[in-house]
Amino acid sequence: MASIPISRSPRILICRLSAIGDCVLTMPMAVALRKLYPHAWITWVTQSPGASLLCNHASVDEVITVSRGWTKSPRAIWKLRQRLRSLKLDWALDPQSLTKSALAAWVSAAPRRIGFAPPQGRELAPWCNNERIERTAEHVADAFLQLLQPLGIEEPVVDFQMPRDEEAERQMASYCEMQFAETRFAVVNPGAGWDSRLWPLDRYSQVASFLGGCEGIPSLVTWAGDRERVWAEEIVANSKGHAILAPPTSLPELVAVSRRATFFISPDTGPMHIAAAVNVPCISLHGTTKAGSSGPYGSQHVKLQAYFQSGTSRYRRRALNDAMQAIPVEWVCQAARQILERSEQQSEKADAA
Fold first, then answer.
1. Which of 91, 207, 227, 344 has a 20 to 30 A CA-CA distance from 136?
2. Domains of the chain (ranges plus CATH)?
3. What is the pLDDT of residue 7?
């Protein structure tokens, strides 16, 4: 099968349904496709949490949302099948390579359905996808781009092109001006999708106290949902006045506030990847995920991991946060100083130039 298609206007489907962080890490796939095939039609199938980031992306023409558990509903499967087949797709790319994503590719009837070979491709994905690529890249973002090799894209650059929501940018610019004026600030994001990825709340408070007391940098504690709000309130209450509670934020608003931060502290979770995608230095904390493969993409970040708490995906999702508890406060404080020193050195070079 030829690697370069005759048509320079292919109709392409990206099947990345969840989670938010992985949707962010898949954005470079859409960007690379758009660069090589500027007249392509690119449709993305996802679940609703990530849709608000994708709907304004310059490299995505259409976003189709499906509900969680859609594969258990014959009606939902039929509806998606009809919608996708009406697009007359040429290719379907399945970076998620699980049943729920591969089934979307399969029902689309795209002649070329490209996903990962086992063990990266799991469940029914290797049977639904008719071209299977072996993962060799360490980082998830680089691995996703390997699926483009059969389409003639050999060495794509990781470029997120995170979209700007102008209303969200205006609101968060006004908020940050009111709260911080010209002062630098850090974002602390304590939440995560897995409990095994959580770092103790009192340690975030200690980090915020250090940043405010020793470095003069206040912390903005972000949250999503009632449970995380309680955590954020506890961090703020124990920060000795050096942290403030963020307002409720949509994902576009989180993008906007992240752009304005000096750095971002978080476990391995979607908001951390959002911050990294807008070139904000991140201090990422890892336990049941590997820092080298799942950490923020780029050399400007500091990734902290005492050890990898290994096991199957199901085990790691349900495990205790032992590996996270092994990360001391001092490591995070040292990482913050490292980022600040690097920033000062860059400013001095810029002034001297």
1. 91
2. 11-151 (3.40.50.2000), 168-352 (3.40.50.2000)
3. 64
